[in-house]
Amino acid sequence: MTTRKLVSDVRILAADAEELVKVTAGQTGEKIAQARNSIQKSIADLKPRLAQAQAALADDARSAAELGDSYVHEQPWTAIGIAAGVGILIGILIGRS
Questions:
Q1: Cα angle: 10, vertex 57, 80; to 5 degrees
Q2: Is residue 86 over pLDDT 90?
Q3: Rounded to 10 degrees, what is the CA torsion of 40, 44, 46, 52?
Q4: pLDDT (tens digit, 9 = 90+) per residue, 4-32?
């Protein structure tokens, strides 16, 4: 979950940086032009890496789902027992509230 949050935060940061570049488009001066160019380059470099991180997350999630599916097919009674146990624990915790 932490990696997903990081990807989300980086996407928001990139969008904010792009908005800053747009807002400052009318500003003149060498320093602001350098800052805008630097931000644009950083965003351009970041986007492919962000896409790769998101693809890696999707692959990891897919692998975990496939692993869980194969485990349930190989050990159905164990999976049923675990699910029942978790259900009982949740029921107890909810009942105490």
A1: 135
A2: yes
A3: 160
A4: 777 777 878 888 788 877 777 777 777 77
